[in-house]
Amino acid sequence: MTRWLDHDEQHAWRGYLRMHGKLSARLNRQLQADSGLSLADFDVLVHLTDAPEARVRVSELARSLQWEKSRLSHHVGRMEKRGLVAREECLDDGRGAFVALTTAGRAAIEGAAPPHVDTVRRLVFDTLTAEQVQVLAELSDRVLARLDAEE
Amino acid sequence: MTRWLDHDEQHAWRGYLRMHGKLSARLNRQLQADSGLSLADFDVLVHLTDAPEARVRVSELARSLQWEKSRLSHHVGRMEKRGLVAREECLDDGRGAFVALTTAGRAAIEGAAPPHVDTVRRLVFDTLTAEQVQVLAELSDRVLARLDAEE
DNA sequence: CCAACCTTGGTGATGTGTCAACTATTTCGG
DNA sequence: CCGAAATAGTTGACACATCACCAAGGTTGG
Lengths: 151, 151
What we know:
Chain A has helices spanning 7-35, 39-50, 58-65, 69-81, 103-125, 130-149, and strands spanning 55-57, 85-89, 97-101. Chain A is mostly helical. In chain A, β2 and β3 (97-101) form a beta hairpin. In chain A, α1 (7-35) runs antiparallel to α5 (103-125) and α2 crosses α5.
């Protein structure tokens, strides 16, 4: 028998969905307007700058972004066309490929990051108490663990 | 000067993004597999069943879903093609239109809701403490208020 | 060695979201 | 009343996500 959500649960669930919807829309718009990047572009570029030689194997990138490989492949194709990243072949493994940060890509992320972080801070961290942030982290980890456990 | 996120903030932020990504992907997949509906379809149908005569003006639906009108228009078009909803003209206002629930649409939502709620409960509410749920609701309201204030 | 199999990565079709431009109708100031 | 502005909704172009499938290179057991 299905147990429906009670009043408080419904409040929490609807609030969460609503917040995420509006928040991500806002962040996307701001990023797009300030730097011409989408959130997805931003994530890709962040992962590349974090890498030792600013290049990462496609499958590793997919894993750390938690993206499907085909999504990443399409996305990298579009970013490549815009000059933000470049594909490089892998000598060790003929099937493999690297995604590498270009100069333009580095410039883009360096320009995009400060206003983006400012916005996140203003909308989220300056708005919440330290305790709320703490609980958000715990709660996320917990749901993530549950998701992983159900694989 | 940009203040970067400190360690705890970064943990919370990354965790939240990761959780939302995986959670929504999972919910979408489950709903799709069980009932052939997407989360977006589901939301539309829920709002229609909540309405007095199971039909709502397009702009009101857009407002309560917090969707852009063009998104809704496209989506309704696709749902109409699948027989889940029907468009009806509005006599009071020649520009206006209603979106109405069809019999097939009602059947779809009634079949989809129980397994969906079960999944949400299992992944989220059974996993979290009552206090965490409480904080999630508060925190969502707070960020939403901040977003609204910045209009 | 080599045939079956697995892994890496890409492709095309289709559904979905966003933006800007558009049509049709209503509303309202003068 | 008339014409400008506001409102309701649609459309087309394009970015994006997902699915099913494919191609080519690697791996391994017989």
